[in-house]
Inverse folding.
């Protein structure tokens, strides 16, 4: 069995998944489309770049991470569905989203987390000094992208940047906070924080080492998304023993304690449980969990 993996080539999380797959499942991989038995599409657009011959003659599995209802293009989904043999989704919520639109098998399997990249560093004060972060403030993190991109102002509502800012404004009434941001297109959040007079620190595009260290600087990470298949930050926080609270999206229920997950209008009442999350994420370590993907593909 040889698998050809496609990704969007945008230097983001899906390209990292492809790279990690090629590194850790090399004997099951090929970078030659025509010698493959299975084409695994990690994004929803690769099929448009592949030949009809390949789509018709190969076994096709596609990962659907989540659907944003107000943006869902039913016609595009159905046009692609005629070439798809199997769907892979990272969580039950996404399975329920796509089930009304396809009769193809849907397999639920969260993605792995790379323990070689994400790990706990018990040196919070030293790390904060390294990044010029205050030692005695309550630091809240958000590492993602949060505008639609076309104007760098409109919030990407699926990611919940507006809800993150609401959370920060509310908790600033109780704690002496500062915000740590990373990722692309954070202009919406930065403008909201500036308006609320909440200080923030922005590290636009960190490499993995820096980002791992920033996780280890935090007192809390907040996932405020409305729709997510992951987000991978949940697994990364669990691996780095970063306190985290989240809306009820994606893989949250697979990793976080029930008290750490709340609907977005009640997120301020969520309570982090570091040890629970760390213990749960161990089953998704790349060294062992990638074998579950290999077993999945072998079963097709």
């Amino acid at each position: 069995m040889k698998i050809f993996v496609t990704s969007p080539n945008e230097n983001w999380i899906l390209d990292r998944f492809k790279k990690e797959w090629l590194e850790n499942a090399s004997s099951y991989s090929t970078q030659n489309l025509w010698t493959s038995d299975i084409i695994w599409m990690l994004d929803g657009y690769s099929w448009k770049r592949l030949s009809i011959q390949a789509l018709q003659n190969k076994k096709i599995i596609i990962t659907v991470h989540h659907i944003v209802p107000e943006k869902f293009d039913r016609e595009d989904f159905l046009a692609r569905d005629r070439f798809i043999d199997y769907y892979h989704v990272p969580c039950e919520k996404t399975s329920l989203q796509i089930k009304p639109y396809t009769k193809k098998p849907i397999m639920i399997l969260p993605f792995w987390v790379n323990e070689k990249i994400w790990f706990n560093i018990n040196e919070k004060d030293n790390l904060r000094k390294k990044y010029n972060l205050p030692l005695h403030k309550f630091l809240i993190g958000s590492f993602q992208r949060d505008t639609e991109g076309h104007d760098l102002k409109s919030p990407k509502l699926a990611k919940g940047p507006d809800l993150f800012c609401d959370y920060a404004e509310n908790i600033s009434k109780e704690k002496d906070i500062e915000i740590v941001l990373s990722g692309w297109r954070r202009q919406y959040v930065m403008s909201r924080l500036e308006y609320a007079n909440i200080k923030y620190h922005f590290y636009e595009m960190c490499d993995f080492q820096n980002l791992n260290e920033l996780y280890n600087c935090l007192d809390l990470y907040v996932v405020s998304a409305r729709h997510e298949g992951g987000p991978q930050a949940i697994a990364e926080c669990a691996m780095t023993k970063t306190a985290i609270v989240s809306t009820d999206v994606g893989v949250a229920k697979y990793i976080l304690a029930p008290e750490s997950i709340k609907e977005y209008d009640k997120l301020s009442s969520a309570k982090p449980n570091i040890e629970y999350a760390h213990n749960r994420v161990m089953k998704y370590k790349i060294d062992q969990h990638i074998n579950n993907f290999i077993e999945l593909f072998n079963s097709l």
About this structure: Strands lie at 3-6, 38-41, 59-63, 86-89, 106-108, 138-143, 177-182, 200-203, 220-223, 244-246. The radius of gyration is 20 Å. Residues 286-298 form the longest helix (13 residues).
